[in-house]
Each structure stands twice: as structure tokens, then as C-alpha cells.
Amino acid sequence: MDTTTTQSPPPPPTDRIEPTSPQKAVVRPGDRVFAGLAKGSGITLLVIMAAIAVFLTYRAVLALSDNEANFLTYQDWLPQNDPPMFGIATLAFGTVVSSVIAMALAVPVAIGIALFISHYAPRRLAGPLAYIVDLLAAVPSIVYGLWGALILVPYLDGLNKWLDEFLSWTYIFEKSGTGPARSLFTVGILLAIMILPVITNVTREVFLQVPRMHEEAALALGATRWETIRLSVLPFARSGIISASMLGLGRALGETMAVATVLSPNFIISGHLLDPGGGTFAQNIASKFKEANEYGQDALIASGLVLFVITLLVNGAARYIIGRRKEYSGANA
């Protein structure tokens, strides 16, 4: 006879754990205040930008409605004539050319200075050198203008003669006239000196944010100092370099007093960059606004609207490039 008994399964537990509903996140009053201030600041900025755009557009329409010349292609500036005739061709040419010269000179030098301070210079030298660069950014533009008019212009005569003698075959360095070096080339050099500390400071801070492990890994694999910078530092800092360059370009496009002090303005478009003359949007507004009548001021505001649009397009293009090119992101370096 089989005496084994079949054991029944244990009874289910009586104290079941009921699923709990997810708890709502607790929002503190300070978080609400901070979020409101941040959102309000962003909205205020958009409102201010929109108000500036509306004001510039309204005054520009008043001026352009009576202008007898093509505003985009006419070279002269005669809003006081009857009928008024004025255009921005010369101003756009001078602004773009001087800014391109400034960027071509300043960006490579600024990157080199930032690399030297962050990766090559001893600590005792890096600190004072960075402090001196910061001080250069605080110098008023009128001081740069006085220095450019009294020191830079006379000493550039020799450089202009050398460029005309050996590089006149390029056409742009052919000097067809005489006179002091109050040209777009001189303005470009002065602007390069002015934007150099801005680009250097931002680029230096970006270089200092490169993860140390990236550099140590490259060195451990046998890379030289330059290979480490080229393969680890520069790819990580590309977006920062572009942002720093756009900040410098924004100052170069809108610089007023330094350009007005150095440049001998005229309304002639010339491919000879060493010839005196030329003009920029900001310089023309600063030099003519006080003596202009109400209609002349509207005409100057119309040119300011063009500069406003150019600045927006430049910054928008920079953001588009950074957003489209994933390799510019430091996270992917």
C-alpha cells in the first residue's frame, strides 16, 4: 500500500502589493520663478528684436519711396538732392571687403594664440598672457582708431609700396593712386587687431574644455603634440571656433569709430585695395547722421536695415552649419 500523500500547493498570499500610481514631480516655487524668468527673458529678447526690425523697416520704407536710384546698385549717396538718389553698393562692398580681410588675418592668429596659451605656454606665462589678451578686448574702439590714424597709417606706407612692387600682378595689391594708406586694406588690418582678443578668448576657453582623456589617449598611442591637437583638440573645438569667429565678424561688420577715424571715405568701388577711399555701413551712418535732415536720416536708417539683415544672415548661417555638420559637435569628437 502506497503511503505517500500528494502535497497541495501553498495557499496564495493574502497581503498582495497593489500597483501604485506614479507620483507627480514636486515643483518648488523657486523652480517656477526661475522657469518664468528664463521664459520671460527669451520672449523679451524676441520682442526687442522684432521692435528694432519694425522701426528700421518703417523708416526705410519712408526713404525708399522717394528714392530715384536703385538702392542696391547705385554707388553714390545723395539723399539731399532733388530728387534724392542714394544706394548702398559702395557701402556693402567696403563692409564685406574690410570684414573678410579682418577675418582672414585674425582667425588663424587667434587660434594660434589660444593654442599656445592653453597647451604650450608654461603656467607662469599663460596666466599673464591671457590677462593681456583680455585687456585688449576692453580697449575702447576710439583708442584703436586714434592709434590706427597716428601710428598704423604712416607705417603702412612702406608695406603698401612693397606690395605694389612685388604683388601688383594680382591687381588687388596694385596701387593706382597716391596718398596715405587710408584704404580698406588698412581698415581690415585695424579690424583684425580689434577682433583678435574676442576670438582668442572664446577659443581659448573652448580648448580648455577638451576632455583630458582624449589627449592622453592620443599621446598613449604614440601621437606627437601636434597630432594630438589636430586629432583630438581641433575636432572637439570646431563649433566653438566657429562661434568665436562669428562674434568677431559681428564686431567687424558693425565697427564705427575706428573705421571713421582711419578711412578716407568716398563712393567709388575699386578692386585696388591699397587705394585710399571706400566706405562701410557703420562709418557712413556715424559720419553723416548728425548733419542729415529728417529724410537723410531715414536714408541712413535704410542702410542700417541692410546691415541688420546681413548680421542676421551671417549668424543664421553659422548656426545652420553647426547644426547640419555632426562632426562639429564636441560630443562626437
CATH hierarchy class name of the domain at 91-295: Mainly Alpha
Q: Please provide the count of β strands.
A: 2
How would you characterize the largest beta sheet?
2 strands, antiparallel
Distance between the termini: 79 Å
Regarding quaternary structure, what we see is: single chain
CATH homolog superfamily of the domain at 91-295: MetI-like
Into which percent range does the helicity of residues fall? 55-70%
CATH topology of the domain at 91-295: MetI-like fold
Strands ordered across the widest β-sheet: 1-2
Helix/strand order: HEEHHHHHHHHHH
Indicate the radius of gyration in whole angstroms.
30 Å
Integer average pLDDT: 84
Helix- and strand-based class? mainly alpha
Strand % is: under 5%
Number of H/I helices? 11
| Global shape | flat
pLDDT below 50 for ≥5 consecutive residues: which ranges?
328-333
Protein name: Phosphate transport system permease protein
Keywords: Cell membrane, Membrane, Phosphate transport, Transmembrane, Transmembrane helix, Transport
Membrane topology: Multi-pass membrane protein
Subcellular location: Cell membrane
What does this structure look like?
The chain crosses the membrane at residues 42-65, 85-117, 129-156, 183-203, 299-322. It is a multi-pass membrane protein. Residues 92-318 form the ABC transmembrane type-1 domain. Belongs to the binding-protein-dependent transport system permease family. CysTW subfamily. Residues 1-23 are annotated as: Disordered. This protein is mainly α and 333 residues long. The protein has a domain at 91-295: MetI-like (MetI-like fold, Orthogonal Bundle). The protein contains eleven helices and two strands. It has a two-stranded antiparallel ribbon. A hairpin with a 6-residue loop joins β1 and β2 (85-86). α1 (29-64) crosses α11. The longest helix has 36 residues, at 29-64. The radius of gyration is 30 Å and the shape is flat. The N and C termini lie far apart (79 Å).
